[in-house]
């Protein structure tokens, strides 16, 4: 034990013999707690991103109850603090606009209240990085509880995954291959329980990264939301966080450069979402760790995709759980991982993996029998993306990974939507679709528009993939040869802003190259004539976002939130 009662943070609120501390005790009793329920105990904040409209987190309100029970059993005092929910499906224009908002809220909720340790409850895409970034910055002991994936979807005897199949069925419907009746049936049968997307989308990627960093109990991220193991994991986390407060085991003691390497190795083996390429540098930045995109590419070139999960493979998160869960998958990677890393349960990663077993070699492939030899993330540079762009080779068409084609440019998303299905659109399968003004400032919020739809007339000809280029993100559940996160973004005058319809573009993923075949003099002329688009916001959160958001290769954090410079504790008076 390194913490004593006297030096718990919460004691500054509750222990003194003065009028202010009296008021804190009096008001806590006002809420129905007896003095002995909270005095002399670590106070644990349960940061819960439950809300009625957050479809993936519907069960987290009940689960907070399991956490509470664990905390009380271990001698702590639980306080549930709701935080911005960020359900991926309903929040517009994009949850990414609000990831930093959630991170700020988490940090300040923890700082401004008498909190000694935190349970972070989330799972839907941006909630995981948002919760972790806030907790890293505040650096009190914390355990992350992933919401768990929704059960596998089934339709007419076929296993279907969230997101991945939505797009596939929509394309079939637009191509005229799916009836109205089936489309209606799908609406009620695709998602069978609460929980996050069951494919290897952003949610599953980020919860696995949280576990690989050491921030969850072992195995937590692969427990299905509807499984009774989930509430048991929650109550165990409640017990454990109290112990962690006494041990003073903080995120900065757990998450270091070696932990990020473990996260990257796991991410690559999972065939995880490109969105992690934005969240990881942002998360690392909160601990003062620099994580350049090159580090992601380095591991992508060394670690094959061994998790056979959609969209790269054919199974779902529930299958990964039955195959032994994330610890089983990580045991396959033991030769690469830093096994001495500490984790929230007080044991090293290596010791947590000791009893891991693999029950299905098709779901968790061996390193020499990967589901694809293509890597999870390629970082592309060239005159079109001087500071980097990304592409997910494992979810792309191999034949398109080296491609030369002529650009068809859409100046923004609205124009693209209006024109994409026009029968007169001049486009063929070799065309490179280019979308501008969809980056962090341009979208705004860097929406998941990067998987541009295939033009209807090409769908009807049987085309299902094309090279697409944008400064947007793409849903981790989607498939396609999509160059994403082009930096600097077009809205601030990056080279993407200068592309014109008819320009030739060369993509060479093996060479990590993205080239606009227009000479420098012509580009300089276009740049001189370029006019910045109108600002999206005059006031409000959006105005602050636009002023302070960094580019995708820097993680899109706010400049003033980066780094680990100390912030003083609030004065109590
Ligand atoms: Fe919440 Fe996919 S919509 S995880
Ligand atoms: Mg998603």
From TrEMBL:
The keyword Iron-sulfur applies. The keyword Iron-sulfur applies. Residues 41-352 form the Dihydroxy-acid/6-phosphogluconate dehydratase N-terminal domain. InterPro entries: Dihydro-acid_dehy_C (IPR042096), DiOHA_6PGluconate_deHydtase_CS (IPR020558), ILV_EDD_C (IPR056740), ILV_EDD_N (IPR000581), IlvD/EDD_N (IPR037237), Sugar_Degrad_Dehydratases (IPR052352). Keywords: Iron, Iron-sulfur, Lyase, Metal-binding. Residues 362-556 form the Dihydroxy-acid/6-phosphogluconate dehydratase C-terminal domain. It comes from the Bacteria. It holds the Pfam family ILVD_EDD_N. SUPFAM superfamilies: IlvD/EDD N-terminal domain-like (SSF143975), LeuD/IlvD-like (SSF52016). GO terms for molecular function: hydro-lyase activity; iron-sulfur cluster binding; metal ion binding. NCBIfam families: PRK06131.1 (NF004784), PRK13016.1 (NF009559), PRK13017.1 (NF009560). Belongs to the IlvD/Edd family. PANTHER family: DIHYDROXY-ACID DEHYDRATASE (PTHR43183:SF2), HYPOTHETICAL DIHYDROXYACID DEHYDRATASE (EUROFUNG)-RELATED (PTHR43183). This is Dihydroxy-acid dehydratase. The lineage of its organism: Bacteria, Pseudomonadati, Pseudomonadota.
